[in-house]
Design brief:
Elements lengths: L2 H10 L11 H8 L8 H25 L7 H35 L4 H31 L1
């Protein structure tokens, strides 16, 4: 078969072919993201992270104007106790991060879960900085 014969055969083919059925609804359904409701446990998880953050904030807020300013010995003791509280809060946040990551494996496109994970990482970083500062304070006052 030469090029002329091939061009003649191709020329006899129809210019377009209509599908046997309308395919667009199936295609559109696959393109449209499915909105999933936020799981109930996610609200509880957010509350746990918030409680941990508030506990640390209240604890440190009460100590700033009180015994921390009176003596280095008291400051060292308070720093040691505070480090324990912060370490517990970090464990709570790490647990929350694990649960959020597990939920994201089920629903990787959830903006709410991604935002919550970001906030949990930020909270863990904030607590880690506080723990480091208190460790330094304790080493200076020992």
């Amino acid at each position: 078969m030469n090029d002329k014969e091939l061009a003649e055969i191709v020329g006899r083919l129809p210019k377009s072919i209509e599908p046997r059925r309308d395919l667009w609804p199936g295609i559109e359904a696959r393109l449209t993201p499915v909105e999933r409701p936020t799981p109930r446990w996610l609200n509880g998880l957010a509350a746990a992270v918030l409680v941990a953050a508030c506990t640390a904030g209240v604890f440190f807020g009460m100590n700033r104007g009180g015994p921390l300013n009176t003596s280095f010995t008291t400051a060292s003791t308070a720093a040691a106790n505070s480090n324990l509280v912060i370490a517990q809060n970090i464990k709570v946040v790490n647990n929350a991060i694990g649960r959020i990551r597990q939920a994201l494996r089920t629903d990787p496109t959830s903006g709410a879960l991604q935002d919550l994970l970001y906030r949990a990482y930020m909270e863990r970083d904030r607590l880690t900085v506080q723990k480091t500062e208190l460790t330094l304070l304790r080493s200076y006052t020992s």
